[in-house]
Amino acid sequence: MVLTHEIRTATQKVAGECLSFLRNSPSPFHAVDHCKSELAKHGFQQLREDANWGDHVKASGKYYVTRNQSSLIAFTVGGEYKATGGAGGFKIVGAHTDSPCFVLKPRTAEKSCGYKMVGLQTYGGGLWHTWFDRDLSIAGRVVFRNGGELASKLIRVDKPIMRIPNLAIHLTTADERTKGFNFNKETHLLPMLCTEMMSQLVNEAPEAEKEKNADAPKHHAEILNVIARECGVDAKDLVDFELYVYDTQEPIIGGLYDEFIFSARIDNQISCYSGMAALFAVDDAAVQKDSMVNMVAVYDHEEVGSNSHVGASSAFTNDVIRRVVACFSDHHDAFEQALRASFVASVDGVHGVHPNYTERHQMNHRPLMHKGPTIKYNSNQRYATNSVGSAIMKRCADLAEVPFQEVCVKNDSPCGSTIGPIISTSTGILTVDLGNAMLSMHSVREQCGTVDLLYMNRLLESFFKNYSAVRKSLPVE
Fold first, then answer.
1. For 177-186, what is each residue's pLDDT tens digit?
2. Rounded Cα gap, residues 116 and 96, in angstroms
3. Does the predicted TM-score (pTM) go above 0.70?
């Protein structure tokens, strides 16, 4: 497909929406919170897992449910939906809310040479060298005492409060200068919070006097005070937290022709955005005529294997499907019938061909930006795609006039994985893995193309609108 001025113009609105998603989502908690805000604007009703759904879930209805505030499933029920008879399946777009980053340790207080430092854990497989010399802050969930009760709040410290300084080239060894700078993830990734000298001045009481009368603190008072201020409580009322380190540099559209997005968390929040955008693009009239359920599921913990009560390998997906089906049928195998009629489009980032490292990509499978979504293949099942699933997505792409690409890794190269094989294994649902080409995957700042956002939105919208008819033409027992 030829890139046109019409496509480029349409891309501008989509890119702006995606920037808003990235800007508002410094942690998985915030990504889900942003999704909730957008769902509310589009008339979706929140369900609770600990409440009865039978009196609420109806045909033509729009709903969402969260788990742990970091995973979310949203869905619309077709007006013609019937849970049994082989047609009552679920059209599911899956993505993940988390990205490689640092997480504050349970005890963060560290000191070195007059500096107060912050102890961090690495989360996922990040390109950790890219986090040096970045303006960092924290965001996530905090639990605190509120009177005689426990309460929680999502916080975001909206200013740079920490930095991991690089080692000057003059202090590196000859080996490090020629073979690359090596660092220890435990000892060299401690961000500086403040100097002890300034701490003593601002807080008046000498540091030595304080420490003489106290046990070694779990956390420096400064960081506790910052967290408490965001929560509107005293530091002594803080109980626990899950706080992620994020880069405070804003997402931005860049490149000479404004054709790229430069941002943190492109992997995989752009897929969360596209799934939600496609769900909203199916209007009420189309939902009323539908005989299936349109669903978007965004999960936490993909970057660390998905093995948690909120990850893609959890019971979350099956729980929601089973409960929706039960609202429409009490047949003993209605749930199993629904699974067999369902389909998952697992959407996650794809390694676009790197212009400086072309040899790292298989010569016939080199995804490019602005060339459309890429279907992922791996014979060792690192991706869930098979010929039926890929044919269905290709047909949906054709109906939307969206170009698509294909990728598989070289035989002498490792292959990543994603939620596709995990959901397919836990549910038995036919699944295809796909995504948009990107560069710098797992860096603190990643890059993708703006045009591909538009293409992915249109493909997923087509999937929701056309899957039923396409699947009927390709029955597989």
1. 888 888 999 9
2. 34
3. yes
